[in-house]
Amino acid sequence: MGTSYQNPMTLPQEWEDYGIGDPYVLRHDGQYYLYCSTKDGRIGVKAWSSANLTDWTYEGLVAEEPVTEGAYAPEVVYWNGSFYMYTSPAGKGHYVLRSEKPTGPFLAQTDNLGLTIDGSVFIDDDGSWTFTHAEFGGIMAAPMSDPYTIGTGEKLGASLGHWTEGSMIIKRGGKYYMTYTGNHVFSRGYRVNYAVSDESPAGPYRIPDNNPILISTEEGFNGLGHSSTVLGPDLDSYYIFYHNLEGKSAEGPPVRHLNMDRLAFSGDKMGVLGPTWGIPTEAPRLPIFHDRPGSAPSPGKWEQAAMPASGGHAWVSKLSTDTRYTAEFNAVVQPDGKEIEAGGEAALEVLLSYRDERNSRVLRVDGRQKKLVMAEQAGGAEKTVFSADLPQGTELNVLHALRAESDGDGTRIYWDGLLLADVKAWTGQPGKIGYRWPQGSQPQLAYTAFSNEAGGSSDRSAVKPVPGTLEAAHASGNPSSPIKAGAAGTPDGSLAAELGGNGELAFPVQVKKDGRYRIAVMAELGSEGAVLEVEASGRKLKAELDAALFASESDWTKVPLGELELKGGLQWLTVKQTSSGVSRLRYIELLESAEVDGSAQAELEKQELFGSWEQSEAGSRIAEAGRDSKLLAGDVRWGDYELDFRLQADGEDAGEAAVLLRTSRESDYPAQVADSFIGYQLLFRSGRIILEKIVYERKEELDSALLELRPGQPSNVSVKLEGSRIRVFREDGEPLLDVLDPDAILQGRIGFRSSSRDWILSGLEVRPVRHE
What we know:
- By secondary structure, this protein is mainly beta.
- It folds into four domains: 4-282, Glycosyl hydrolase domain, family 43 (Tachylectin-2, Chain A, 5 Propeller), CATH 2.115.10; 289-451, Exo-inulinase, domain 1 (Jelly Rolls, Sandwich), CATH 2.60.120; 463-592, Sandwich (Jelly Rolls); 600-767, Jelly Rolls (Sandwich).
- It contains one helix and 63 strands.
- Strands 26-27-36-29-30-31-32 form a seven-stranded antiparallel β-sheet, with no helix packed on it. A seven-stranded antiparallel β-sheet has the order 50-53-62-55-56-57-58, with no helix packed on it. It has a six-stranded antiparallel β-sheet with strand order 25-37-28-33-34-35, with no helix packed on it.
- The two termini are 46 Å apart.
């Protein structure tokens, strides 16, 4: 695994009794700069710098203007030589500050622009700017005419069902990915969701089903939120930074800590390899080649190349790229700012796939016409492949970054992070990288690097945490049977891997600790009959994708395979098809499990209470009418079990009550969405019984039936949860509900929920599933 780090992280000179909250990371010239919220009542914005995202150096206060008192969520963008900071003092509107360096000093440029809190700027490929910010009912987005002027906003449809904040947009593969957080910083259920748009930063956005991507309500690690996303040091990976909540400071504001986890993409789907905490996690990988050549490139990393008869300078790397690579070049093209005369030579050329002075690919910065020209040089002859205008207003006497991604799908060229060209014909070719410039020109060469990854290819070799979800397309395949992956037929645009006889998926994994793990696969209808063998820690689990386990009305079903005893630590996990035929898998889910056995009944005595409860011989009821209260019992690692209970409603107008099934990640806080848990809810209301699946703000009714409860008389109900199937029976054994959830929640504890004192729960019994 190489070097590692561990969440949460502590940095030098954090705000005392406040820590790091609302972290934002800027990448510029191969360096990273971290900014965070300022403690209430203090003036100034703190910053840290890093070359690798794990080792941070304190840079001091980068802004000390009076408007930075209690500066919440400062974010910094670079544009054409200037750094612009957007921050919200104590959450009361926004100010814009400007600096010529990422470490300041940042000076205020505007009055208070309003617009609540958590402002974030996104710059699109066409150079247009968008400002997003927090609001009740969802994130707002507004166009910007310049770095200081924000237009009229509109809601994006990205909401966490209550107060929603902490937005940020990135663009990858032509898609817009927006992360956002909520509902309250002091809630254990503070979490991060994401949304995807195919059209623009203003939407429309769709909300994928794998949300939330960051949530934990565990003791010692909860309140995860307010994230930012940044490109990794290897130029291919992405990392998400966020904070966790420790508690309340002596002065009242929250105490928070810094965390980082890797993002991974499967088609349109974005996920987090985490959240990880308390265990070693693979550190971000560095590029294979990186240097700051300056005016005199090091002979240890560079060599001079031949120039045309007209003279000039050319340097190329001693190392060569593979066929697939990403390379980045940072430079001040014209430090003196002089315009190039008509007919004059280009100010700077960047070399790709360089073999010799007669054979290479060239990215030519035309300083006179403000264009980027892509040219192919073969045998000394040159052919222009593509040209693009540089962003409007580009000044070449300040630092700019050129990045080239090259693989089997072509070559994509970025200028300061904006996509300028996507040339399909330029499929990846190996070779050296370098610079070339004419006599009389003196460009300032800065951070230069390449890695042999492109288009997210590094996601396949990244170490995946267990418990967690393994995207099938991120596996390493058998060399004799390469993985076939595609998005055809997937509901979320993610990639599915196709397995035939002896087809194999292999994943490097970090298992958190020794124990039993429940394993399931998301399989396509038509994969029935395939036999899969999962192997890890020297143990094997073999299971057939039984047709009875598939939901016939759905194209995809999460199919439980069974349980496997795993050893903690770094290892390989493989999924192999040992039968004939073809199966298609989207992902493999591994969850820590606990057996429901003879001791399970005793676990029900270990209760967690949200709200006040009364316990009597009659059963359990809430003590405070009108307060949404929950009684939680059992083990969140429980999977399959049978449950019996008695429910009694006193009075004709008792309102509603619910028994919670397979519930986890529960939170209790006034200022958040009402349904703050992940699990199933068996709701009793107005003579009906309703099975709902709840993932915080997302609620789905799965089935319902008539069930009259006589006032003052307890009624017995039984539930059987087995894999993706949930069955509910009345006391005479007659079935009420029978649901096979194609995207099932496969484990969690038991609970009772009500806001009315008229409901009483008693006779709660749990036992292992009796197989028919």
